[in-house]
Structure to design on (479 residues):
């Protein structure tokens, strides 16, 4: 936790790889991985004399991203050359956008512990990704793989509006969820499809000016982003308290030691010598083009949330959770259509499904079963065929193998026992073996009933119909 006489200020530059089929300036595949240098052609390998042609889908996806994040769209946009040398970028410049980004002045809303907050987006521009260096483990040098060179990116630049690592995580999760809803990226952070440059500064509470910031580049897990910000804020405060100045520099976060290291300082502050890309024409968009894209957008989380509260009677909390990911939201809608019990579906997603994902360290995009299975599962509870305790076990099974829940309970013999005679037998046995609890109950200790029911559940491996069990116990105990 950061000292409470200081405030942390954070701004993010988020890079998101677009899921177009082909690269931004050539027709090579954007598919992740592959043998090194197999998704390449003379254009993305920067052979002299080759010329780029802009992939129209990239513009469309970027405009989608802009509209979904409340941005204005620039109708007279263009590409610019950003000049710098790095071995994974053979042209020695990157085609990006400088003064006329496609989208500008947007915002997204995040939930914080003090309610909703708007994080402003300064701009979203399009650019090309770089290749990758593979460092030889035997020290024989480094190899360049250009498969990723020319994969289209959008860069989303936020205003320095975030004040804690929790707000940063909420903002990143919000962007990820929006980009998943509008289907412009697979947003796989572990593959680098979504990554952030994190700018951090601190200042005394109440100060008007921002402090000097440091930047940590290419962070691609929520956990490291949160840890890195918390560490870096503490480090900066300590420097200031010791009378030192913060240097504006690029840092590298090391997950293993849990600290930041200096990479390069201000001395190499880059002069990119931007100029309009002479090999590409300007990007001119008509109102009609923009409106058509607006109309093509799917329903976004904010509107879904309203609908879930108003039409389905979900609580604010359950609704927020259900829309936090497209994968949850689609699961919720599909399952509800089948079982017509939105409350149970919503609760199951928020508690059980989220818990199991968390235990497996997986994200909602890895869910393999659909609303078809979940909907049937909830119907089975509602019809009294299984108890909710058994439903939880069926869910665990669904994570291992996708099968209809009715099939699972049949195979496992998990159908609820609702036969009065069979349950009565169990009740009598438990009463006989627990004379002390019976005496306790009769002496006014109501809790003893819960214990007896629990024993009966254990005896039947959770399969006894709980209402029937309660009823029969009460009947016997009153005798
Ligand atoms: P540059 O052009 O050098 O990358 P920008 O002004 O475009 O710098 O800012 C880059 C990112 O840094 C933005 O996301 C912005 O919100 C953030 N940022 C700028 N100043 C600060 C600061 N003092 N503390 C934290 N973040 C900052
Ligand atoms: Mg920058
Ligand atoms: Zn190519």
């Amino acid at each position: 936790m950061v000292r409470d006489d200081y405030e942390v200020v954070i701004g993010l530059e988020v890079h998101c790889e677009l899921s177009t089929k082909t690269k931004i300036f050539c027709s090579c595949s954007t598919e992740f991985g592959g043998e090194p240098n197999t998704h390449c052609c003379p254009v993305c390998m920067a052979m002299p004399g080759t010329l780029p042609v802009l992939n129209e889908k990239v513009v469309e996806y970027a405009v989608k991203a802009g509209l979904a994040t409340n941005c204005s769209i620039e109708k007279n946009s263009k590409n610019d050359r950003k000049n710098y040398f790095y071995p994974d970028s053979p042209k020695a410049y990157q085609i990006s956008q400088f003064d006329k980004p496609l989208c500008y002045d947007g915002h997204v809303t995040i939930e914080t512990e003090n309610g909703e907050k708007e994080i402003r987006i300064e701009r979203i521009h399009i650019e090309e990704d770089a290749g990758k260096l593979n460092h030889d483990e035997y020290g024989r040098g480094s190899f360049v793989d250009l498969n990723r060179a020319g994969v289209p990116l959008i860069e989303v630049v936020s205003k320095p509006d975030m004040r804690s690592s929790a707000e940063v995580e909420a903002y990143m999760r919000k962007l990820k969820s929006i980009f998943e809803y509008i289907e412009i990226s697979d947003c796989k952070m572990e593959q680098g499809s979504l990554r952030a440059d994190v700018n951090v500064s601190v200042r005394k509470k109440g100060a008007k000016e921002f402090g000097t910031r440091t930047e940590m580049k290419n962070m691609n897990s929520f956990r490291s982003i949160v840890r890195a910000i918390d560490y870096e804020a503490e480090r900066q405060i300590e420097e200031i308290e010791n009378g030192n100045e913060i240097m504006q520099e690029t840092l590298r976060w090391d997950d293993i030691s849990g600290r930041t290291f200096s990479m390069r300082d201000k001395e190499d502050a880059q002069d990119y010598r931007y100029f309009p890309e002479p090999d590409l024409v300007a990007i001119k968009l008509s109102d009609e083009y923009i409106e058509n894209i607006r109309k093509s957008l799917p329903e976004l989380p904010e509107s879904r949330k309203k609908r879930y509260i108003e039409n389905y009677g979900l609580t604010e909390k359950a609704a927020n959770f259900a829309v936090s990911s497209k994968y949850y939201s689609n699961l919720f809608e599909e399952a509800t259509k089948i079982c017509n019990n939105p409350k149970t579906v919503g609760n199951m997603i928020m508690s059980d499904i989220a818990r199991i994902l968390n235990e497996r360290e997986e994200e909602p995009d890895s869910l393999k079963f659909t609303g078809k299975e979940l909907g049937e599962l909830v119907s089975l509870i509602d019809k009294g065929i299984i108890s909710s305790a058994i439903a939880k076990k069926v869910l665990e099974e669904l994570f291992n193998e996708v099968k209809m829940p009715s099939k699972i309970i049949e195979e496992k013999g998990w159908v609820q026992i609702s036969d009065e005679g069979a349950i009565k037998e169990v009740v009598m046995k438990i009463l006989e073996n627990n004379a002390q609890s019976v005496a306790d109950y009769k002496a006014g200790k109501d809790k003893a009933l819960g214990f007896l029911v629990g024993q009966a559940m254990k005896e039947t491996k959770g399969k006894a119909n709980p209402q029937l069990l309660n009823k029969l116990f009460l009947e016997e105990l009153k005798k």
Observations:
- The radius of gyration is 29 Å.
